[in-house]
Amino acid sequence: MKHALIIGASRGLGLALAGEHLSRGWQVTATVRAPSDELHAVRDGFGEALEIIAPVDITDQEQVAGLAAYLQSQWFNLVFINAGILLGRGQQLTEVPESDLNAMFLTNAISPIRVADQLIGNVHPGGMVVFMSSVLGSVGTNDDGRAELYRASKAALNSLIRSFCARHPQLDATVLAMHPGVVRTAMGGPDAPLDIETSVAGVADTIEQRWGSGGHAFVDYRNQVIPW
Ligand SMILES: NC(=O)c1ccc[n+]([C@@H]2O[C@H](COP(=O)([O-])OP(=O)(O)OC[C@H]3O[C@@H](n4cnc5c(N)ncnc54)[C@H](OP(=O)(O)O)[C@@H]3O)[C@@H](O)[C@H]2O)c1
Questions:
Q1: Model-level pTM greater than 0.90?
Q2: Model pLDDT for residues 122-160, shown as the tens digit of each residue
Q3: Are 5 and 122 in contact (CB under 8 A)?
Q4: Pocket of ligand 1 (CB under 6 A)
Q5: Sequence-distant (≥ 6) Cβ neighbours of residue 55 within 8 angstroms
Q6: Pocket test for ligand 1, best of 6, 7, 10, 13 (most atoms within 8 A of CB)
Q7: Domains, the chain, with CATH or none
Q8: Ligand 1 centroid to 8 CA: how many Å?
Q9: Cβ neighbours, 10 Å, residue 197
């Protein structure tokens, strides 16, 4: 049985990714920064196939180190770092408070890489590390500049993913920067075109299709390559 570690699974896409992989017969370890009734409800359906670990705030280095210590010597076929935030929605860069600027880059760009660095020894040879990025992180397709802070934070994540791969040439894993589509979650909003189920099914299919391919790629939930 394959084992997935999903970081940031309290709600939205992370919660649904946990359910999707459990439905596909995986064992899942899911982390949250605060108790999630929704995730506990998933455990009621799947029992011991789902382990929940809390609190894991990815911006808290002590908590991340604690997670790594707790997971020492456990293998995961898939490490999926999903957690992310969107602050300053609709605001010009100049209007966004300094604290929000810092939080966006710390949460969306720096912390996912720190988590991956801590957990790299837990990735099963031939496995996969997936970072939840966004098509908005594509510098090459940035023609309209909207959501510029969020966009920049995901572009920074993408750059750091490539640096992570370069720093770990010995890593025997496929590394993906994943765009899940524009999805009706708290972040995506009620008018987003995609429902959560379609998105996570596509993300899980893409993971299966890319399994064992090696190297790194920026792809969407339909396994379409996105320009960096
Ligand atoms: N929805 C979209 O259209 C869309 C499009 C492209 C990319 N994405 C990306 O997909 C990922 C999930 O987004 P979503 O739409 O599911 O958003 P969401 O419903 O707002 O969920 C965000 C998740 O991230 C967690 N999180 C945020 N900060 C965290 C931290 N410091 N430590 C640990 N967990 C943290 C949240 O936990 P709490 O419950 O504790 O807040 C929650 O589980 C994000 O990386 C987002 O940027 C989303």
A1: yes
A2: 999 999 999 999 999 999 999 998 899 999 999 999 999
A3: yes
A4: 8, 10-14, 33-34, 57-59, 82-85, 107, 132, 134, 179-180, 182-183, 185-188, 192
A5: 32, 33, 34, 63
A6: 13
A7: 3-220 (3.40.50.720)
A8: 7
A9: 12
